[in-house]
């Protein structure tokens, strides 16, 4: 599976998963209220206050920089865990 690290299709799918997961979280928060708990990935921030739009823009596929793209792929996985 390491050969898929940084693969654009995998990253696009993961980004969609993050967006779908965030939508489900927002729906749950609208019913029960926000859960104010420190972020696992960004411990200096509260998880419900993370700016996912900014994070998804920051950690994106960059064709000419495979090392950054692989790093971004890992960060996106960690954002899923954080959610």
Summarize the structure.
This protein is mostly helical.
Give an account of the 3D structure:
With 83 residues, the protein is mainly alpha-helical. It has one domain. 59% of the residues lie in helices and 0% in strands. The chain contains 3 helices and no strands. α1 packs parallel to α3. The longest helix has 25 residues. It is elongated, with a radius of gyration of 14 Å. The two termini are 23 Å apart. The model has no long low-confidence stretch (mean pLDDT 91).
Give the percentage of residues in beta strands. under 5%
Measured distance between first and last alpha carbons: 23 Å
Main beta-sheet annotation: none
Count of DSSP E strands? Answer: 0
Overall helicity: 55-70%
Given helix and strand content, the structural type is: mainly alpha
- Tell me the series of helices and strands, N- to C-terminal: HHH
| CA-based shape | elongated
Main traits of this protein?
mainly alpha; 83 residues; 59% helix
Topology:
Blueprint: H1 8-32, H2 52-58, H3 66-82
């Amino acid at each position: 599976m390491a050969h898929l690290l940084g693969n654009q299709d995998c990253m696009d799918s993961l980004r969609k998963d993050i967006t779908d997961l965030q939508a489900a979280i927002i729906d749950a928060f609208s019913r029960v209220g926000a859960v104010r708990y420190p972020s696992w990935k960004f411990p200096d921030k509260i998880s419900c206050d993370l700016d996912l739009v900014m994070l998804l823009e920051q950690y994106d596929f960059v064709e000419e920089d495979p090392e950054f793209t692989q790093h971004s792929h890992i960060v996106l996985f960690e954002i899923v865990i954080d959610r």
